[in-house]
Specification:
- By secondary structure, this protein is mostly beta strands.
- Helices cover about 0% and strands about 50% of the residues.
- It is built from no helices and eleven strands.
- The strands form two sheets. Strands 2, 4, 5, 6, 9, 10 and 11 form a seven-stranded mixed sheet that branches.
- The radius of gyration is 13 Å and the shape is globular.
- The chain starts with a strand and ends with a strand.
Length: about 130
C-alpha cells in the first residue's frame, strides 16, 4: 500500500521560512516524479512545484518562483519543499503527490497524479 505523509507545516510570520517534507512508502520512489500542490480556503487546488523522477528537472508556479525550492532524497524516499520569504497569500494546505515517471512538468490540475498525501497546513501571518 502506498503512503505519502506530509509534515513541517505550521504558523509562521510573513518573511519567514518553513521546510515541508513528504515521506513516501510502498512505491519505488526513484521512478516517480514528485509534485507539491496547495489549496487555500475557498480556492481551487493549484500547482506549486515539481521535480522529475531522474535528472532533477524542476518547475515552479510563477507565484513561488525564486522563493520555494523543491528537492528529493531518493535513499530516504522523501521530497522536500523549502519555502522562504513566505507571504500571507501562501497560506494553504500543502499536498505532495507522486506521478510515475513524471518529468517534472507543471500540472495545472493535478489530475494526472497517481498518489496523494493528506496535506499539511501552512499559515502565514501578516
Amino acid at each position: 500500500q502506498v503512503h505519502l505523509v506530509e509534515s513541517g507545516g505550521g504558523l509562521v510570520q510573513a518573511g519567514g521560512s518553513l521546510r515541508l517534507s513528504c515521506a513516501t512508502s510502498g512505491l519505488t520512489f526513484s521512478t516517480y516524479g514528485m509534485d507539491w500542490f496547495r489549496q487555500a480556503p475557498g480556492k481551487e487546488r493549484e500547482f506549486v512545484a515539481a521535480i522529475s523522477w531522474r535528472l532533477g528537472i524542476t518547475n515552479y508556479a510563477d507565484s513561488v518562483k525564486g522563493r520555494f525550492t523543491i528537492s528529493r532524497d531518493n535513499p530516504k524516499n522523501t521530497v522536500y519543499l523549502q519555502m522562504n520569504s513566505l507571504k500571507p497569500e501562501d497560506t494553504a494546505v500543502y499536498y505532495c503527490a507522486a506521478d510515475a515517471f513524471g518529468r517534472g512538468t507543471p500540472k495545472p490540475s493535478g489530475s494526472d497524479m497517481d498518489y496523494w498525501g493528506k496535506g499539511t497546513l501552512v499559515t502565514v501571518s501578516s
